[in-house]
Amino acid sequence: MGSDISHRDETGDAAYVHGKVTDSDGNPIEGVILDLWQTSPNMFYET
What we know:
Blueprint: no helix or strand
């Protein structure tokens, strides 16, 4: 819940994700929520 969801699991490589969401004209879209998912090295999601 925030910038680090690893729960101190130090296996695998850290990922840094950044960007912006825009419309087709390049204008920022207000109120966008991004939901990002990444599996651990053992191919499981954190629950």
